[in-house]
């Protein structure tokens, strides 16, 4: 490993910590062309970014993201802020010739996302790489599902069934956090978790969503303004002053795919008992796959070509040496965790710098954004079937 | 048990056999006010109905249903024919003052169903009883789910998620049977299996579906005209002449419920590997339930009031003496089967003759029909949100 | 179906009711050479047997079993009494030339069982048939497991892992019933439920248990003498007088099989939460199977010859037309229940009268008894490895 | 975080890599009194240890473990070699006043383990800490199980059921590795994986194993001497020269616990399809728990005090803020992986340096060794019940 790859991480909450751990761990388990190192941590509050930098052993911290993205000695800008800051930072970084890794969703609006893709086109022509952090693609089980589709194990795809169910808003007195404010978060369950389903469904099926008919709903219109957060949800006194929830609590939509498949999607934070049930099932003419992130090391697979008397969904433990990513880790049956997905992502990203660009890039992420946009539009128009606007072809 | 209750069963295919077994078994396990006996079996083909009558030990057979429904010595008409015959037979039987048990769907069109309800109103005033065979209501696990909702264990209901997934049409060369002809079957997956989901969802949630936005799809537009049937699907030579499939292969719709819940429904016969996955999940503010008929003796239940460290979906084996129906059968842990649901249904029906009418009656079944009608209408109108037409209130 | 097969059932508790239902249902779903009918019900208490006979619609009842087994017009004696009566009744019935179906365990001691086998040999030579009711063999999933072993899908068998876990004695104040008295029940968990595991393990593996090393334990040495029974366990006031439990509460043993497999067995009624977990797992050099009666319609199957990337335990729904028994019932995915096993048993028994004798016969059941005997002997001798005594070869 | 804690890791195979990653990751997610750093990596082969050191970014490497354990600037010796080297290295390190963390099993014989405990006693008196790497104790789900027992949720414990099932030796032509040689590995499945079960069973139940009756078996007595390893098992040409397997392939034993519980244990590498099924079930008078490492983020829990109609095993996702370790990681429902257990272990170890010693220490590990010794003795004596020899009390 010759040269170091110097990364500046912007944001140090939950997602920033996951990224930093991943940049550091990747070269221990993957043989990479360059060794990444987190050289700089950027935050808004000086005291807090210093504390985080010290705890995470990062050599330097800053509160001036613009100066950082322009520094000569930085190779990669890794954006872990809320969505309303993505466009500005990414465009500046691309203009400065950096590689840019941006958390999902790419932006809060299609317009912002289009601006980012525009900037990406120019910068990519000059050697920059862009990448959007739909991290679930790095789940070995989902990567295996994609492989199964490519190998033709599913045949012609007919059904895509995607649910992303969480429950941290079930308590009507859980506090009003930034994720419930349209200004910061762009949308609610749709953009936060439904976006993952849309990306995974299109990627694994190999088909694009062509149109949708949707319903958005907010169950609890006001919530206590403050309160200590614990985990995603936290609790707040019910006597606190309440403010308006300006995003959707739940999203449900049907979809038609480019290859003829029919899709059903649902995203919610009110499915009590479902902690992080990011589920995907695809049925084809020859086989099916089913996945639930709550059992992230398993892929369910039905092979319709098995002897009839011995047919059944197989519970594949996707931890064997022949499985995606698994040969870099532990012996078979010793599962991976959520944090390891980011290790895969960073390893793939670094490896791709000297190979094909890693997907999803900004243009792919814009396509997801366009689907979310159609979902919002359909919901606003009596659920009418709404085609997804498409840009130029990207493939 | 004083007096016998004389039943005439019309139809002797799969469903007729299930009913006959159930009429006979019910009094062995349930203490009933009258002992039912199947006195007459009616079929269209004389040789075949005789053979069936002999095998099933039924004292008398007939090919003249009209004469049968008018006989003095018959108390109950049990209709197990395809849906296109329901209205005619049921109306004649009601006119003759019989109790009528009719398989679902009640009819192939709302107009027919309305006519049946009209006839039912008159006959019920004179003492007749009507009942529609949504047999899944007799599943102990679903009856327990209903009880949990009534006990308030789920709190305010937010999500209803219903899937009915089968796979017997996955093979594009499976033959064209009557279930694929609109004239006979009325509709495809929607009326055949989606109807069960609609009935169960409304019954268990205690809320009505107020409107829907839907998508219907036919994956395989033509199929071989003949072929030996094996099970539901069977196989046919792919060289056979093909005829048009005139019903939907799959139905998907979102829904709004009268109490504020959001619903997502899907019915298909193309979910390869899902044999009879009649699934229902309901999430409330205090708890959730989840069910899959493929594990019909289990109810999943999440109680949000459990200690936080010990929360999790419980797999309840609904076979204990305190559970619905279970005290009539085996010791705990010794599950029931599909055929036993009909035993419950017949036992409940007979018991109800001297008590409150058993639900769903024809009027309830018409309400299901109206939902299916709205689904078809929405699908024909670009998935636009379509309110369910309601008749007079029935409760 | 020409001639009727007249059956007298002795005993009308839980097991008698299951048998009667099964005799009656079998000809409705299976094409049998003779139609069985329960002509006589025998009980000890005149009032109670009359009441049962009336409820179950049996033409005649009696309290004199000896007279019944000698009647000319009876073909089959079906013994559903506690184990201490089996030998006397069966021997008398065999002497009278009847076919004898006897509930398991065959007898309470090896000596009694040997006497029964002696009587069976003589009677069988004269045309009688004997059969012992290890009903779990009629579970479609276990019959499929047996088929898989025969087809060589498992290869060389190495491990047999059998647990039969119930929990109805977990409450130390559950009452002292006849199943806890050595005199009546012979043994406790070992003979009642462990016997099923031994029979299934030997049958499915195709190997005999050659020796065992065991441990028996009684957790609760005294229990309240009376109390209303509810299900198997029931509750009793803790202030009631207590009597001694004279059987084992739990049995655990390791075993060596004739073909080189290693076995681990456990039977208990104290596994709180396990209602009827009759489990069997077999691992071979090419494949594995796993079963749990709490999900009786499923067989888990691992095929080591699957592509490495797609290997995993398959959950087979054993309800397809190609599966044992399933073609006589409902469409795929519509499961069977515990009561249906007895229907299979009676159908198999009747069909076998004009074919090969149905297994397990009395001689097979004696072999199970000998294993249980070795388990008791080993437990009494410091768990020392104890060979199973074998009689003449029977195959 | 003031002072660094300097660690030398001895061994750099699978387990060494896991430890190094964990030492480095622990301070990123846990607030520790001292920041650990891996200062030195020791291996036998100079070229290979250098390569590993470079890849893992360890400042210094060595092939002279004795010199390393005596260096002033090293605080902790972390032993990741095969078991035959443990005693020598650990004793030297303790003599030099180091803290010693040793992989399990503590040693290959009880005599060695006793010598290590002797050395530990002296060194601990002078301030050293010892720890044995039974890493499964750091699984959140098992730590929660321990907490449930301590909280009394299980009541009086009756059954302990532990299986550790792997399958990497199912292929009779898998190569002869060091784990199959008694000299290096001490024992086979018993010491390698059965040891984990013994430690977990005693720790969680809070009871000691008092005696055992056991059976050891070797299914494949010779194996190909060489072959490329892939994962634990790998494949070798079946034509290769074969050498003797000198350890047990499978171990099975029953046990009696100090508090009256009955145990059944099984360890094997021939359970085809079970990749790493480290399973534990405990049944008490009030509740039960069940765990399978293949679903390491879940604990099954049955609470017998739940309403009877709502009783069932709960699937607890042990990822909530109230669960052991989970508050240091991701939001609820985002599971951990195998590698994270070592992070917990190192974090706990460092935290304990300024608090109570972390368990299991060497003395605890010796107790496990004594159980394994009794298992081997019983197997050699016709499975006779064999009491576990106990040293002085340690608690």
From TrEMBL, chains A, B, C, D:
Any Pfam family the entry gives: GFO_IDH_MocA_C3
Sequence ranges assigned to domain Gfo/Idh/MocA-like oxidoreductase N-terminal in this UniProt record: 5-124
Lineage of the species this protein comes from: Bacteria, Bacillati, Actinomycetota, Actinomycetes, Micrococcales
GO molecular function, one term: nucleotide binding
Keywords for this protein: NAD, Oxidoreductase
Protein name: Dehydrogenase
Stretches assigned to the GFO/IDH/MocA-like oxidoreductase domain: 144-289
UniProt KW Disulfide bond keyword: no
SUPFAM superfamilies with a match to the protein in the record: Glyceraldehyde-3-phosphate dehydrogenase-like, C-terminal domain (SSF55347), NAD(P)-binding Rossmann-fold domains (SSF51735)
């Amino acid at each position: 490993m010759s040269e170091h790859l110097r990364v500046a991480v912007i944001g140090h909450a939950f997602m920033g910590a996951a990224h930093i751990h991943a940049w550091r761990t990747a070269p221990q388990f993957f043989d990479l062309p360059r060794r990444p190192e987190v050289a700089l941590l950027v935050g808004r509050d000086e005291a807090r970014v210093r504390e985080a930098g010290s705890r995470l052993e990062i050599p330097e911290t800053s509160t001036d993201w613009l100066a950082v993205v322009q520094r000569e000695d930085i190779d990669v800008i890794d954006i872990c802020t809320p969505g309303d800051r993505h466009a500005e930072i990414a465009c500046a970084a691309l203009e400065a010739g950096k590689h840019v890794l941006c958390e999902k969703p790419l932006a809060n609006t299609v317009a912002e996302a289009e601006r980012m893709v525009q900037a990406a086109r120019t910068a990519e022509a000059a050697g920059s790489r862009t990448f959007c952090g739909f991290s679930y693609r790095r789940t070995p089980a989902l990567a295996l599902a994609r492989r199964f589709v490519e190998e033709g194990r599913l045949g012609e795809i007919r059904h895509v069934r995607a649910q992303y169910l969480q429950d941290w808003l079930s308590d009507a007195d859980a506090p009003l956090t930034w994720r419930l404010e349209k200004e910061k978060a762009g949308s609610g369950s749709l953009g936060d978790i439904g976006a993952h389903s849309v990306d995974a469904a299109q990627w694994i099926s190999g088909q694009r969503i062509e149109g949708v008919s949707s319903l958005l709903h907010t169950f609890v219109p006001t919530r206590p303004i403050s309160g200590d957060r614990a985990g995603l949800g936290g609790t707040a006194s019910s006597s606190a002053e309440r403010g308006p929830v300006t995003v959707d609590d739940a999203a449900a939509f049907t979809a038609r795919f480019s290859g003829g498949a029919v899709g059903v999607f649902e995203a919610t934070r009110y499915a009590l008992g479902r902690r992080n049930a990011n589920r995907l099932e695809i049925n084809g003419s020859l086989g099916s796959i089913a996945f639930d992130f709550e059992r992230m090391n398993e892929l369910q697979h039905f092979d319709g070509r098995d002897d009839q008397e011995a047919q059944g969904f197989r519970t594949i433990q996707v931890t064997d040496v022949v499985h995606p990513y698994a040969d870099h880790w532990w012996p078979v049956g010793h599962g991976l965790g959520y944090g390891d997905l980011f290790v895969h992502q960073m390893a793939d990203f670094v490896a791709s710098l000297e190979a094909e660009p890693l997907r999803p890039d900004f243009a792919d992420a814009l396509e997801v954004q366009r689907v979310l946009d159609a979902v919002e539009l359909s919901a606003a128009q009596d659920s009418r079937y709404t085609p997804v606007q498409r840009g130029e072809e990207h493939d």
